[in-house]
Amino acid sequence: MGFIYCLVLFGRWASLILFGFVPAWYSEFDKGIGLWAGNDPEPAPHVSSSARITSLNAAAGFSVPVGTIITRCTLPGTVALTFDDGPYIYTSQVLDTLGNNNVPATFFINGDNQQNILTENSQALVRRMIAEGHQIGSHTWAHPDLVTLDRAAIVSQMRLLESALVQILGYYPTYMRPPYFSTNDLVLRTMGELGYHVVNADIDTLDWANNSEDGIQTSVQRFRDGLDAGGSISLSHDVQQWTANVLVQAMIDEVQNRGLRGAVIPTFPCSKDVSFHAG
Q1: CA torsion, points 266, 194, 115, 128, in degrees to nearest 10?
Q2: What mean pLDDT value characterizes the chain?
Q3: What pLDDT does residue 149 have?
């Protein structure tokens, strides 16, 4: 039994390092030998996750804090393309472009914004994101300004999406992006208690404001200017038509022309961290 324990433990950490999460079937396999796997069928809202995530990070030698704002990649030469507000009808085209260029991205997804995440199409898109090597993060259930909510409502926004992702994937992420980048002490403290890293961005393409054939060139230029200024985490939206049509490829071309490398936020090479909660 000791040998099996070590073998599974090694496999878990190998999965974390290579993929940024532990597959759902590992959680099932772990149940019989006492490894932490988050055995509840849905996240338990009364249990803080920050302590066990901190423990996992410490055991792996990682030090990305929870409940504090991250605005840039920590490793030189990397750029993280991130997309908010999906999944939606343009998400598939964004995934096609990323896949054609072999570039990973991070999708901060909602539960019920442009379309409900539990629809058959949305679930397929979320699974496709993971299958094609991308990462997901939470963008809350319904995209509210968290600063306007009390603690119970903030927790509810996170737990509703967690439960949906457990149904779809068997786990949920430890990274989140607050809608509108809006936080205060209560929001950050609550995210810390729930075990979440809070990710903003240092390149905002404002693609939502430039969603036209001509206007999207303004977002392309904002991305270039952001790279010139040393930015490394970009914000765009996979729910915008002209982001899918033009901006994604333009950002990839710019990154590659500069000799930079695309990265997903929770894992190598943008940062080092455990990026999942097992369901």
Answers
A1: 30
A2: 80
A3: 98
Which residues, 6 or more positions from 234, have their beta carbon under 8 angstroms from its beta carbon?
Answer: 79, 80, 81, 82, 201, 203, 204, 205, 223, 226, 251
204 is catalytic: no
Is 237 a catalytic site residue?
yes
Long-range contacts (CB closer than 8 Å, 24 or more residues apart) made by 202-205: 202/71, 202/72, 202/226, 202/229, 202/230, 202/231, 202/232, 202/233, 203/227, 203/231, 203/232, 203/233, 203/234, 203/235, 204/234, 204/235, 205/234, 205/235, 205/236, 205/243, 205/247, 205/251
Spatial separation of the C-alpha atoms in residues 214 and 221, rounded to whole Å: 12
CB 273 within 8 A of CB 266: yes
Pairing of strands 175-176, 197-199: parallel
User: What is the 8-class DSSP label of residue 146?
Assistant: G
Tens of pLDDT, residues 171-214: 999 999 999 999 999 999 999 999 999 999 999 999 999 999 99
Q: Pick the catalytic residue: 237, 238, 273, 277?
A: 237
Three-point CA angle 48, 49, 54, nearest 5°: 125
- Dihedral in degrees, nearest 10, Cα atoms 242, 244, 245, 250: 100
Structure tokens at 200: 């903003």
> Which pLDDT does position 266 carry in this prediction?
59
Task: Look at residues 198, 207, 201 and name the one whose alpha carbon lies nearest to residue 227.
Answer: 201
10 vs 225: which has the higher pLDDT: 225
Catalytic position from the list 84, 204, 238, 273: 84
